[in-house]
User: Which sequence fits this backbone?
């Protein structure tokens, strides 16, 4: 019991004032997961709007595909990205494997179906109504689309935040394609898992506290949005 | 602006929602579309205001076919049309934000006093800064009408605007419609409310199963419907099915158990007679009169309806409904199970040839 209390004490001493190594890890985590979320949002939100508004031939098939994709375990995505990016793989020439780029690619693929599906389900019931209202009040096509985006902004933010919270906590896949290289691809979750296995509880606890704090901020934001 | 529809069809999953619609709306007056649920009223309006595309056929605005319009021309046209939905949907924001949406989109300067005037008219002035999504159903519908009227459209389409509303909201909306009618705007109103149809309809279209079955003025539709569907839908009276037979120069409508004198020149094998409840005279004893029909029957039901009572009388197995005032009911001391005589003229029975639809 004592070593746990000791670990917590030392963990907090690493945070106040924060060590440079910890700051680097936090910064890299936010950068990698943040940019992956942005890329996934840039593709997923327009895709969600499009699928919600348009009646096209393979619509149901695509919705089914997105839902299946969402259920695929992260390690499988990690495996696929690893195969594609490894030296012998089709994208091997870029040399992305074990760099932050590889993590961004894998995390973008992981967050994309989540953000698309959340956008779609939020808009599914309202997109056609808003389209009708906007058109009947004289909007042209661009104004109609802009109105839908404006009406759905809280839903988009919810989708983005949910996607980000999924990514910041992702471990296995990030370890596979990033390699947990100190100062290069070591992020919060991979660092915690490594330090715990090494028996460095205080370091793990310090990082864990940060991760919990990030989760807390995300949830406060979500609550505030849903209260709107 | 003249609006004309030619041979319009709309199919969804191989089922006809609208079937061969041909109509010409009267400019500068109120056109009413009536018909049972699922008749295709909403679908027809949605095609007319360019929210949906028909599968075949054409809509002409001032002679110009809609299918040949560019997106820009469609936007220009839509800006001259107002459409009030059956279920009002509010945009995020306050009542004020919703009112100015159309003006903002058109780039029209927002005049505060004009907005105030229209909000006072629909009774929402004290709610101007409230969240529009938190309004009640009636308030939302009034707001959606205000949101449309502030744009001063040349023609306004209302899709069952007063369905599920309280009497106050209904009256406000009816007042607005009659004002538009006085301003000689083209109004298209779809409704279930037959009183509204009578009150506003300069021209009435009756729809059923995606088809327009009859059009005409309110006199044509309600007093001399040419098809039984309208008589059934609008319940203009008792519906008696039977056949016409001629005896000694007299024509009779035969049912299984009644023989009713009617006036007709045609001998139909299958016919429907419509008999308005207020054309039937109720008495406790038979009496001499020029009316050719007199039957006795038993009162099976007495329903109170405002100042009048509806009596259901079983005549030889056929139930006929008739209306009677409260005073008459009391002075004659009528009760359930009493025997009464029903008297009506041969001309009171309006005959409709059985309309066959395949």
Assistant:
């Amino acid at each position: 019991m004592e070593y746990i209390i000791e670990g917590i004490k030392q963990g907090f001493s690493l945070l106040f004032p924060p060590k440079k190594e910890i700051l680097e890890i936090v910064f890299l985590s936010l950068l990698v997961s943040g940019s992956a979320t942005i890329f996934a949002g840039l593709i997923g939100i327009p895709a969600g709007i499009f699928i919600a508004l348009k009646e096209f031939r393979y619509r149901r098939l695509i919705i089914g595909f997105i839902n299946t994709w969402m259920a695929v375990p992260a390690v499988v995505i990690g495996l696929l990205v690893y195969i594609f990016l490894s030296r012998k793989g089709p994208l091997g020439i870029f040399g992305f494997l074990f760099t932050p780029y590889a993590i961004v690619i894998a995390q973008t693929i992981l967050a994309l179906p989540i953000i698309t599906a959340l956008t779609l389900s939020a808009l599914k019931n309202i997109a056609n109504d808003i389209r009708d209202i906007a058109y009947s009040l004289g909007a042209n096509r661009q104004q109609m689309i802009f109105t839908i985006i404006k009406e759905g902004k809280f839903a988009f933010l919810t989708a983005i935040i949910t996607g980000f919270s999924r990514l910041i906590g992702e471990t296995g896949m990030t370890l596979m394609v990033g390699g947990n290289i100190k100062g290069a691809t070591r992020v919060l979750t991979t660092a915690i898992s490594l330090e715990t296995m090494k028996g460095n509880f205080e370091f793990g606890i310090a990082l864990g506290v940060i991760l919990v704090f990030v989760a807390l901020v995300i949830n406060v934001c979500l609550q505030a949005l849903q209260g709107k | 602006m003249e609006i004309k529809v030619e041979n319009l069809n709309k199919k969804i999953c191989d089922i006809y929602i609208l079937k061969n619609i041909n109509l010409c709306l009267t400019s500068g007056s109120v056109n009413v579309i009536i018909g049972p649920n699922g008749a295709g009223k909403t679908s027809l309006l949605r095609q007319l205001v360019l929210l949906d595309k028909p599968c075949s056929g054409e809509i002409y605005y001032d002679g110009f076919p809609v299918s040949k319009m560019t997106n820009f021309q469609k936007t220009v046209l839509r800006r001259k049309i107002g459409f009030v939905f059956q279920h009002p949907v509010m945009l995020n924001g306050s009542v004020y934000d919703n009112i100015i949406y159309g003006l903002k989109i058109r780039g029209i300067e927002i005049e505060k006093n004009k907005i105030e005037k229209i909000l006072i008219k629909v009774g929402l002035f004290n709610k101007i800064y409230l969240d529009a999504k938190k309004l009640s159903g009636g308030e939302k519908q009034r707001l959606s009408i205000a949101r449309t009227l502030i744009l001063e459209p040349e023609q306004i389409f209302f899709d069952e605007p007063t369905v599920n509303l309280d009497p106050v909201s209904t009256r406000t909306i009816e007042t607005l419609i009659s004002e538009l009618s006085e301003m000689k705007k083209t109004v298209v109103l779809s409704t279930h409310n037959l009183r509204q149809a009578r009150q506003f309809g300069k021209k009435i279209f009756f729809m059923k199963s995606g088809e327009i079955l009859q059009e005409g003025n309110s006199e044509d539709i309600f007093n001399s419907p040419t098809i039984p569907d309208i008589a059934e839908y609008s319940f203009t009276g008792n519906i008696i099915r039977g056949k016409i037979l001629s005896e000694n120069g007299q024509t009779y409508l035969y049912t299984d158990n009644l023989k009713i004198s009617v006036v007709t020149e045609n001998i139909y094998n299958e016919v429907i007679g419509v008999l308005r409840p207020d054309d039937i005279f109720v008495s406790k004893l038979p009496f001499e009169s020029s009316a050719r029909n007199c039957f006795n029957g038993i009162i099976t039901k007495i329903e109170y309806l405002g100042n009048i009572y509806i009596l259901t009388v079983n005549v030889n197995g056929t139930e006929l409904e008739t209306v009677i005032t409260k005073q008459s009911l009391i002075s004659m001391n009528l009760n359930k199970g009493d025997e009464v005589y029903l008297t009506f003229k041969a001309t009171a029975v309006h005959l409709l040839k059985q309309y066959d639809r395949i």
